[in-house]
Amino acid sequence: MINFDSLTLKALMEEIEPFLIDARIQKIRQPSRRELILTLRKNSHNHNLFISIKPSFAHICLMEEENRKFRILEIPQSPPMFCMLLRKYMENSKLEHVIIPKHERIVEFYFTAYGDLGERIKLVLAIELMGKHSNMILYNADSKIILGCAHNVGEEKSKNRELAGNLPYIYPPKYHKIDITQINEIEFINLAKVIRTTFHNWLNEEFYDISIPLAKEICQKFNISTSKDLNFVIDVKILKEVFAELQSILSLNTIKPSISEDFGEFSITGKYKHHLKTINEMVDLYFAKNSFAEILERKRRNLVNIIEKEEKKIKRLTKKLLLGKDLEEKIILYKHIADTLMANIYSFCETNNKVKLKNVYTNEEMIIEIDRTKSLNDNAQNYYKLYNKAKKAKENNENLHVKYIQKEKYLQSIKSAIKLAIDIETLQEIEEEISEMILLNNNKKRQKRKEKIVVEKQEDANSQIFIGKNNKQNDYIVSKIASPEDFWFHVRGDFGSHVLVKLKNKKEDISEEILLKAAKLAAKYSERKNDAKINVIYTKRKYLKKPPGANLGYVTYKNEKELTITLGDENI
Q1: With a cut of 70, which residues of the chain have pLDDT below it?
Q2: Among 170, 492, 493, 494, which is disulfide-ready with 527 (CB 3.0 to 4.6 Å)?
Q3: Predicted confidence (pLDDT) per residue in 210-254, tens digit
């Protein structure tokens, strides 16, 4: 992933500025400490200006409707202090103009607002998009005094520049570079004669607005090495072509927004195959999708950590059971002692704490500890009690061992569902399932509430296909949606989705086309999805059974048939 650079900011603001100037702020929302949404109204149309100062995702854009699904934005009931400050000064204010300080990743929105006494106030909302130093600052345009910041910067964080209420707003320290659009070809070639680093690093360090990704793009286009081997000379002809290309790019003459297929990079020069119509569309889609992926991965990681903690508990408990293997020896020993004492109950009298007798089973001599205040019969009965206790403990251990194995499999099924989840809603359902499981483990009752479980459905003229993405959905499909004659699909021998096929004409048999489609869906949403060949079983719902007390999504089946399929690169 690459950062939002000054050149992209310049191109973006040139593009969206007409939608912003003379617009009024209707609504101000702050989903998180580092995100802001300004709803601007102009010519009877609303535009949502989205601002993020998250270090890895710092950017600004107008939110596109089709990309909303990638924005995980929850507006808190109690707005942050900075949001309250903005609402106090800026609601219903008019956006007069926008300024981008030259070669900076800063954009300043100039507003006209009115104070408590009706006086006109000029305010500036400065958005600084500088990685971990990103910030949002509201200051008075005339006095340059800061009214508030998204987060304050004290002397302990920065010796050069403090940011807080009642302090003067100053720009961050500027690095001295050359504006390539202000020099000629000969000057550029002369500068290139003394390069003490790689060419792409030199372009980035020497000139304004040339980011490392753009510099590497230039090197790739003109076959210039980006390795650390500095013993090379660039032909003057190539340098002239590089200069002309950079002049064109930095003057924003040829804008072709594009994003790489893996969404790892974007380019305003049309480098990648995935082309977008506008810079704004590119920025919104790129950062929205990468932010969504990061949130999804973080949530996955958190849930997996919870599951792994539960797995460690199970392993510890299982280890204790394995340590109890000596119970078998105790059972045999207590039985032998008790029976030996009973065999000698009338032929032996002893006043010591230990007796020496021949084991009635092995005929070997054994020394037995007894309580001499009691009869041999009472001592024998005590050993019988110890025998029965050890026997019961062994049975209990065996039952617990079976329970722990089932629990381990259940935890693995949850982990598999987490891995396969591709949306936040599915992960939230898994999170609820984990919470319920932990409550049950701690013998606590969960609060009963009506849950709305949404299952993915694919429909055509002949059938409806339901796909479970986690244990809750799998259980819901089998117990609530399925009818006896519906067809159930699952990958053989591994964790995955329950896929259910409902035929619209119950009298018809399932077609080969629907059979193959359902089997591929079961394979696609399973741990086996990357295998060369995948075995999928299917049977009718009436042949499924959920054992009493079984975990969510667990069923047994019979009368199943099997298909072997290959997924390849097909999109289902």
Answers
A1: 229-232, 322-325, 347-351, 440-451, 568-572
A2: 494
A3: 999 999 999 999 999 888 765 567 889 999 999 999 999 999 988
The tokens for 89 are: 């000064």
Contacts of 109 (CB under 8 A, 6+ apart): 20, 95, 98, 124, 125, 126, 127
Helix, strand, coil percentages (3-state) for the chain, rounded to 5, are 40, 20, 40
Which tokens hold the place of 293?
A: 């992926």
Q: Check if the beta carbon of residue 257 is closer than 8 Å to that of residue 246.
A: no
Nearest to 141 by CA among 163, 167, 110: 110
421 vs 432: CA distance, rounded Å: 14
Tell me, what's the pLDDT at 448? 53
Other Cβ atoms closer than 10 A to 213: 17
Query: Do the beta carbons of residue 261 and residue 273 sit within 8 Å?
Result: yes
Question: What DSSP character marks residue 108?
Answer: E
Give, in order, the Cα–Cα distances in Å from 110 to each of 51, 62, 125, 140, 150. Answer: 16, 17, 7, 10, 18
What's the length of the chain?
A: 572
CA 108 to chain centre: 33
pTM: 0.77
Contact of 412 with 495, CB cutoff 8 Å: yes
Beta strands, E only, 452-523: 456-459, 463-467, 487-491, 499-503
